[in-house]
Amino acid sequence: MDTVDLAIVGGGVIGALVAREAVAAFPDVTIAVLERGLIGQGASSRSAGVHFPRGATARVRSMSEHSQRVWEGLAAELDLPIREVDATVVTSGDADALSTTYPRLGDETAPADPARGWAAPPGARAWTLPGCHYADVQGVAGRVLAGVRDRVTVLEGTEVTELSSDGAYHRLTLGQGRELLARRVVLAPGPWLAHPAWADLVAPLGLRVKKVVATHVESSPAPDDPLTIFDDEDAFLLPLHGRGHFLFSYTSDRWDVAPDDTGLVLEPSDLDDARAVLGRFAPGLVARCDSGRVFCDAYSPSREPVVTELRPGLVFAGAANGSGYRLAPAIAAETVAALELTPTRTLSQPRQRQS
User: Among residues of the chain, what percentage have pLDDT more than 70?
Assistant: First the structure.
């Protein structure tokens, strides 16, 4: 039976960054990442990948600032598929209130652009917001993990079917019939909260899974088109320059879905809701809003990410409330800090590269 110091269950962007953070913090430990599909293939592959410095609470603002610094460093170090973008925040609020949520808020600007068909509700104001980017999140997760694969065993196509503990070790039963013992486990399942292997462990956290909808607007963005954040509506319009269209993300209010539901699809009501919000700002784009992407994410009662020990040596990391990519570096840092892990020489040695 294989034995490791740390097993990370979930190979999305959070799991990948936990692995990287753990390698840096614990240079001599053995680490395995287990992903039932391919790295970054789950919720990460559906993510809009938008980062903007924002937080409704002091903790989330701190996490956002930490994540921004990490992303800036990793983007250059690993040549990540990240593209910087100008941004504008549109709101009916005033600058003082807005600057608390957006600590890097810039100068006030025009809230409408008639030349591009933009309108704005009466009383709306707008400010620039420096420090924004968007990313191919699946590509980011793959490259982050590729940078540490000489130190980490990566098991793709490997589902954890059972998770138990004898006090000293956690026993992970894998779909191929193998078993893995781990001194510490990080559970980073994204929206797969109801998986039988850990559903009972996660249930006391009170987490729920909500549908996430982003429609595709078939209009080619100009090179200087900004990300526009509609703060009052908790929505944004993102120019996807590489794909040649806009993405409009708005808040869906359908709860208690599951990531493997066959009915988790783009419905006519989703398009109707998106068009109603989009039409208040860009009526000229409403007719071009006919397709999109749908998935889901885990949300916490506090609307803050959850990093907590479910039982000794088993840490849950997630419930990012739709901001998994944006806050992943900070979630990873909090997770690794909670592990209190030191290497044990009696455990299996890291997998060696083949020459």
Answer: 95
Structure tokens at 125: 């104001």
Burial of 119 (0-12, 13-18, 19+ CB in 10 A): middle
Domain made up of 87-130+208-299: CATH architecture: 2-Layer Sandwich (3.30)
Q: Give the Cβ contact number of residue 46 at 10 Å.
A: 18
Residues of the chain scoring pLDDT < 50? 344-355
Whether the CB-CB separation of 227 and 238 falls below 8 Å is answered with yes
Dist CA 22 CA 282 (whole Å): 45
**Domain segments of the chain as ranges:** 2-46+138-206+302-337, 87-130+208-299
The conformational region for residue 328 under phi > 0 = left, psi -120 to 50 = alpha, else beta, is alpha
The whole-number pLDDT of residue 114 equals 67
Phi, psi at 258, each rounded to 5°? -135, 145
Residue 272 structure tokens: 């109707």
Q: What does the pLDDT look like over 237-261, one tens digit per residue? A: 999 999 999 999 999 999 999 999 9
Q: Are 135 and 80 in contact (CB under 8 A)?
A: yes
Phi-psi region of 318 (alpha: psi -120 to 50; beta: other; left: phi over 0): left
Pick the CATH number of 2-46+138-206+302-337 from 3.40.30.10, 3.40.50.1370, 3.50.50.60, 2.40.30.20: 3.50.50.60
CA–CA dist 135, 51 (Å, integer): 8
Average per-residue pLDDT for the chain: 92
